[in-house]
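Input chain follows. Return structure tokens only.
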Amino acid sequence: MAKTFALIVAAGRGHRFGGGPPKQYRDLAGRPVLAWTLEAFAAHPAVDGVLVVIHPDDLALYRAAASSLDLMEPAFGGAERQDSVRLGLERLAEVAETPGSLVLIHDAARPFPDPAAIDRVIAALAECPAALPCLPVTDTIKRVEGGAVRETLLRHNLFRAQTPQGFRLQTILDAHRALAGQALTDDAAVAEAAGLEVLAVEGAPGNLKITTAADLAAAARKLETALEFRSGQGYDVHRLIPGTGLRLCGLYIEHDRSLQGHSDADVGIHALVDALLGAMAEGDIGQHFPPGDRQWHGAASDLFLQHACALLAGKGGHIVNLDVTLICERPKVGPHRPAMRARLAEIARLPLARVSVKATTSEKLGFTGRGEGIAAMASVSIALPPPAGSA
């Protein structure tokens, strides 16, 4: 069966935006603009793979933006956008496993691609070799020369082009090869110049392109009004048994006892995972990693936290903060607290300031007071788009 790939063009330098990092790596609600773009395509059920074309100087920035996502290795771009797209298409042609694959070419600086518009583009490719999402022009359009209006254009057949623009992979690659070196403004223009029919489909008004600082501010306002904030809580407990050490919050600590469990029994991470899953209304850790499943026997709980973070990213959300409290008499948590915070921040790809680790005892009362086990409580805050159809 033919596959559908997303090709994200992120090699531009953004000179119109001003100084500093390229616009696709600017901060938007706590994450790079590119991260929002990538998550939208990675989460779309019709997209089988995502390839990003980047500037060689931006590899570290790209790695940070894409850290929580399962993407293809990036390709390096060329001198012009058209060169970058062609190089990305060449890479996709090498890895496409079946003939007839499709490609969605999208600008990195459009962080809000509409899933329904993506569906319309893909559906149109069953009829045509190329599809363009666009919106009708509603303003009156003037042609101006030398500071004076020379003509008023009829707008009834004028449309604003958006991305992702969809194509049959081999067809648009052939067109790019044939037209290499020509200055064409988008990939639909390449298809047109190659004599391909381009079908227009309905775009999405919210598919904002960030070109200036004002656009970035508008995108931030859009997120502020669109995102909803949720909290979740988790609790876990594991028995202490004779041993040589244990894992707490992703950190191995030498100790005369170990924690008993199917996985590595890291109570801190388990509580955090349950809190994240609860905030997303995605069940609990046992549903995602059943204790009777042999593949999780002795598994590092890091994997569980990474899974929860990826699930949240796939919904277009992000973590606001993590807070875990460990309840035990021994080992003493205080000396290990900074390393625990750092390890959790590393696993969840968060700034250290968003991660808290605390500890307390039960004043020698109950099973934790008797040293029979360790308990953990966790709370998290997340931000994510509201469910479809919600008010």
